[in-house]
Design goal:
Elements lengths: L1 E5 L3 H12 L3 E5 L3 H8 L10 H10 L3 E4 L2 H6 L3 E4 L15 H13 L4 E5 L7 H12 L5 E5 L9 H6 L4 E5 L2 H10 L1 H5 L4 E4 L1 H32 L3 H9 L20 H14 L5 H24 L8 E5 L15 H10 L3 E5 L4 H4 L6 E3 L3 H5 L4 E4 L11 H7 L4 E4 L6 H6 L3 E3 L10
Parallel strand pairs: 1-2, 1-4, 2-3, 4-5, 5-6, 7-8, 9-10, 9-12, 10-11, 12-13, 13-14
Antiparallel strand pairs: 6-7
Helix pairs in contact: 1-3, 5-6, 10-12, 10-13, 12-13, 13-14
């Protein structure tokens, strides 16, 4: 089979490479000439563990290629995947579908024979019908079906998520389209991966409902952490105690500085707007959006409070600026709120991130970017851990004490144990964990 993947961003590039690993002939299309040239030269524009090797192997096997020529790629494809960006629209928070609609028009003009057009981008309910309408109006003679096939890729583990997913969701109205999708996902059928076939609207909503539920779990445990600090409870034990209930589960019950990234912020907001327009407002998700936005600013205040109520004239070492480890993604990262707030309060920032500094530099000004974690902490008044990269989990704490002006750590990911930090004479601040807890 042959597919065209329209868009070589995170979703398009990972999905295209993984489909080619399944043995499908994949052409990835993008208008960005520089990006296509880089991909043809083996340069991967994003950081995702294992993606460089996957792309290299399948390009060498001639199953994966890159082009700007959408028309040629679409004309010979059995299925065309739309994997373009759907950012929040300025002014109202709705998903901006201009790239999706534009792709639909170009695809329509290039269709040649029966083709399944698949929305892989995260899109609001009803988008599939809109795409079908655009194609039908542009090419009344076109022989096509529309499918919805949302992605469930976690940055940092996207390849494994695609190859061994919890489930695959496919929204399709015809058996003909379902058969094409079954053929594309045949390797997953063979390992008995749950394949959920639904209507277009149901498939589109499943993606948003899943992401907003996970964002709600994160926000819930963050607020529980705040309560734990007030009453002397340990949020880790609370999370374990409720997570062992099979109805709740242990995942996404880790307190932190608030969710970020390419999905949760825009998807929660888009679902809120969709629900409001439909006359069925989602009050819980509206609150999640508000609480998460507030939390990032509160984390800056927490750092300032730990520094004695003022950071004016002080140097703060920041460890990690990406929204999560194992990615270089800076979109809606808590650091984009925390660092400027500390600077506005008079702090000088020294920072290090293993993969995200190139992306962060244009977004965070007047930051002293360092060679490693220890370099960032040299002569700093305090260190704040914002992203839980593995290399930050086993710092030489005696060396840290020597580098800092005072042994003060603000750990916004609860990487370290408060009792152990107290034994090492650190002034240690974390989220929802008291000193002298039983381990």
């Amino acid at each position: 089979m042959r597919i065209a993947m329209i868009g070589t961003g995170y979703v398009g590039l990972v999905s295209g490479a993984c489909f080619s690993e399944f043995g499908v002939d994949v052409v990835c299309v993008d208008k960005d000439a520089d990006k296509i040239a880089r991909l043809r030269n083996g340069e991967i524009p994003i950081y995702e563990p294992g993606l460089d090797t996957l792309v290299e192997n399948n390009v060498r096997a001639e199953r994966l290629s890159f082009t700007q020529d959408l028309a040629t790629a679409v004309a010979s494809a059995d299925a065309v995947f739309i994997a373009v960006g759907t950012p929040s629209r300025r002014g109202d928070g709705h998903a901006d579908l201009s790239y999706v609609h534009g792709a639909a028009k170009e695809i329509a003009a290039a269709l040649n024979g029966y083709t399944v057009v698949v929305t892989k981008s995260t899109v609001p309910v009803g988008t599939g019908r809109e795409v079908a309408s655009i194609i039908a109006k542009t090419r009344p003679d076109a022989d096509f079906d529309i499918c919805s096939n949302p992605e469930f890729l976690r940055e940092g583990s996207a390849i494994d998520d695609f190859m061994r997913p919890d489930r695959v969701v496919i929204g399709a109205d015809t058996e003909r389209a379902r058969e094409v999708m079954k053929a594309l996902y045949r390797p997953l059928f063979l390992i008995e991966t749950p394949i959920v076939f639904t209507s277009l609207e149901t498939s589109e909503l499943i993606k948003y409902a899943g992401n907003t539920f996970l964002a709600t779990k994160i926000t819930f445990i963050n607020e529980i952490a705040d309560l734990c600090e007030k009453v002397g409870a340990d949020v880790h034990d609370v999370a374990k105690g409720i997570g062992l209930d099979g109805r709740i589960g242990r995942k996404f019950l880790h307190p932190g500085p608030g969710y970020g990234g390419s999905c949760f912020p825009k998807d929660t907001l888009a679902l809120v707007k969709t629900a409001q327009d439909a006359g069925a407002p989602l009050r819980i998700i509206e609150t999640v959006v508000d609480v998460n936005a507030t939390r990032k600013a509160q984390m800056a205040e927490k750092i300032i409070a730990a520094c004695g109520g003022s950071v004016a004239g002080k140097t703060i070492a920041i460890l990690g600026v990406t929204f999560k480890p194992n990615t270089d993604d800076m979109r809606d990262s808590p650091s984009l709120v925390i660092v400027p707030a500390l600077q506005a309060a008079g702090a000088t920032i020294r920072a290090f991130d293993p993969e995200g500094m190139a992306e962060a530099k244009p977004l965070l000004s007047h930051v002293d970017w360092c060679d490693d974690a220890y370099d960032a902490m040299r002569d700093a008044d305090a260190v704040a851990l914002l992203t839980e990269w593995n290399q930050f989990r086993a710092l030489n704490l005696e060396r840290v004490k020597e580098l800092l002006k005072a042994p003060l750590m603000i750990d916004l990911r609860n990487v370290y144990n408060p009792d152990e930090m107290a034994q090492l004479d650190f002034d240690y601040s974390c989220l929802g964990r008291p000193m002298n807890t039983w381990l």
